[in-house]
Write a structure and sequence with these properties.
The structure holds two protein chains of two kinds. By secondary structure, chain A is of the alpha/beta class. Chain A is 42% helix and 14% strand. Chain A has a single domain (28-307), classed as TIM Barrel (Alpha-Beta Barrel). In chain A, the strands form two sheets. Chain A has an eight-stranded parallel β-sheet. In chain A, strands 1-2 form a two-stranded antiparallel sheet. Chain A starts with 14 loop residues before the first strand and ends in a 27-residue tail after the last helix. Chain B is an alpha/beta fold. Chain B contains six helices and 13 strands. A seven-stranded mixed β-sheet of chain B has the order 2-1-3-4-13-12-11. Chain B has a four-stranded mixed β-sheet with strand order 6-5-7-10. In chain B, helix 1 packs across helix 6 (191-204). Chain B starts with a strand and ends with a helix. The chains are: A alpha/beta, B alpha/beta. Chains A and B meet through strand 2, helix 1, helix 4 and helix 12 of A and helix 1, helix 3 and strand 8 of B.
Chain lengths: 322, 205
């Protein structure tokens, strides 16, 4: 049984169809959120080519995310970062059996429509790309394809879920190889979940409505989330993960799985590292196995990484006030 | 007498299956514990095993790492009931072909003589919910949640077809081995999990 808190049963993205064996529904919250549940305890890897996608699949990735450039290369290149070439996305879809995701710009409804027509399995409305609309995210209920969104706090996560996101990931600070921000964000979400749970358990509805106003979301979704004591959708860690130990630590903080961006294919030992990060994610609660995974990589081959304090571009701030 | 039922906890929706199985035990009034299992040692203690939904390539490769694949195969061959859901059904099969990519060389358990097609109904946008019936096991109506689901195009001797949808086989059974292409653990209806618990109970008595 899935939590369906905040679902809209009248969404445009729900398609009613007839078949020889009876009526069919597509694009329901059970199907969209359920898809994300199948990724749990897995690693989604950013890729830019067919070769990288195959390395990811062979390493045991549960899905690949197609981008034009890896986040750290987006930083270096500057300019406007847009959705990837459709032809490359299609080539990757034809060459791996695991689900294929792709990123669109925040608020860019038509990049998302193009990705839906391309038939990707999930769309990431991502701060790694240059936002198209800082004030409005996409109304994701209009789509049959599920969406994942980034969040750095509970309020941001719940706002995205109310807009129809079927999955949440921490934002971290993409393209830095620095896991610090992802850790901060998941701890903040956990703290906030604990505090609304405590309010719920105390029966103080007036305080819950105060939280809903502060979060800029409906009372219902705050109440249901507080009752659950966790987000009503799957929550992955993302942003700056570069090593097996990074992945295992985030799993231990209660994340349902891991997104790795530049950390794998901007390292010089991508193949071993991809495998090692998968192993550490699966066996995160067995220190011996995490050590074995960490031993598979060479720190001298890790991406150099960036200090978050001195960054000129903080991708995590994109779209966070809306 | 208490049953020990395990859900293979490598990757996928493990927790959802633990919850559905616990509910099934409670509704049936059967005593038992439900645990996530990873290691050969955990698996060897089980009376029944669920291989959950997830990515079959990931589950297969990672079960090879700690040799749980081998022990699962031995246990099932010795007769413990197993329920394979979606990726789990793929794991139980002899061979798997992907609708687009073709033959895959992923690690499988080779226990069910079925011809299996991965992603048979299409990609996520084509994922669907629809009512199906499994009359032979007294579940006439069940809300099937099909997510990038596989299907079976042909079965070998001794494999019973439990359900079809649009002429594609979506649930099979051979002895104590059950494979389904849809996700009972994502719905409130625990009748399939109850059927599975009863199968385990009958065998243990």
């Amino acid at each position: 049984m899935l939590p369906l808190s905040g679902e809209r049963t009248d969404a445009k993205g729900i398609i009613k169809d007839k078949s020889d064996s009876g009526n069919i529904l597509r694009g329901t919250s059970t199907l969209k959120r359920g898809f994300a549940h199948m990724l749990k305890n897995g690693v989604v890897m950013d890729v830019t080519t067919v070769e990288q996608a195959q390395i990811a699949e062979d390493a045991g990735a549960v899905s690949v995310m197609v981008l034009d450039k890896l986040p750290s290369d987006v930083r270096k290149a500057g300019g406007v970062a847009r959705t990837a070439s459709i032809r490359i996305i299609e080539d990757i879809m034809d060459s791996v059996t695991i689900p294929v995701m792709a990123k669109c710009r925040i608020g860019h409804v038509y990049e998302a429509k193009v990705l839906e027509e391309t038939n990707v399995d999930m769309i990431d409305e991502s701060e790694v790309l240059t936002p198209a609309d800082e004030n409005h995210h996409i109304w994701k209920w209009d789509f049959t394809t599920p969406f994942v969104n980034g969040a750095r706090s509970l309020s941001e996560a719940l706002r995205r879920i109310e807009e129809g996101a079927a999955m949440i990931r921490t934002k971290g600070e993409p393209g830095t190889g620095n896991v610090a921000e992802a850790i901060t964000h998941i701890k903040k979400v956990n703290d906030e979940l604990r505090s609304i749970k405590a309010i719920y358990d105390s029966g103080d509805n007036q305080d819950l409505v105060r939280m809903a106003r502060e979060f800029k979301v409906s009372y219902d979704i705050v109440e249901e989330t507080a009752k659950l004591g966790r987000l009503p959708v799957v929550n992955f860690a993302a942003g700056g993960i570069a090593t097996p130990a990074d992945a295992a630590y985030l799993m231990s903080l209660g994340c349902d799985g891991i997104f790795v961006g530049s950390g794998i294919f901007n390292a010089n030992d991508a193949k071993e590292r991809a495998r090692a990060i998968v192993l550490a994610t699966t066996f995160w609660n067995e220190s011996e196995k995490v050590k074995e995974a960490q031993k598979m990589i060479d720190e001298r081959q890790s991406m150099l990484g960036l200090d978050v304090k001195t960054l000129e571009l903080r991708m995590q701030e994109r779209g966070s006030s809306a | 007498m208490s049953l020990t039922i395990g859900v293979l906890a490598i990757q996928g929706d493990v927790h959802e299956n633990i919850t559905s199985t616990k509910t099934a035990l409670k509704e049936l009034g059967v005593e038992g514990t439900v645990v996530g299992v990873k290691t050969a040692e955990d698996i060897s203690k089980l009376d029944g095993l669920i291989i959950p939904g997830g990515e079959s390539t990931t589950i297969g490769q990672l079960s090879l790492v700690n040799s749980s694949l081998k022990i699962i195969k031995e246990k099932i061959e010795r007769g413990i009931p197993v329920l394979g859901i979606c990726a789990g059904m793929i794991m139980l099969s002899k061979t798997a072909n992907d609708r687009v990519v073709g033959k895959t060389d992923q690690p499988l358990l080779d226990l069910l003589d079925i011809k299996l097609e991965r992603n048979s109904f299409g990609r996520q946008k084509e994922s669907f919910e629809a009512d199906i019936s499994m009359n032979s096991i007294n579940i006439p109506k069940f809300n099937g949640v099909f997510i990038r689901a596989p299907s079976v195009s042909d079965v070998g001797s001794g494999v019973e077809v439990l359900a079809k949808f649009n002429e594609k086989i979506v649930a099979v059974k051979k002895g104590n081995i059950i494979g389904v292409a849809f996700h009972p653990e994502l719905t409130e209806d625990v009748s399939l999990h109850k059927y599975f618990v009863n199968l385990i109970k009958k065998l243990k008595n």
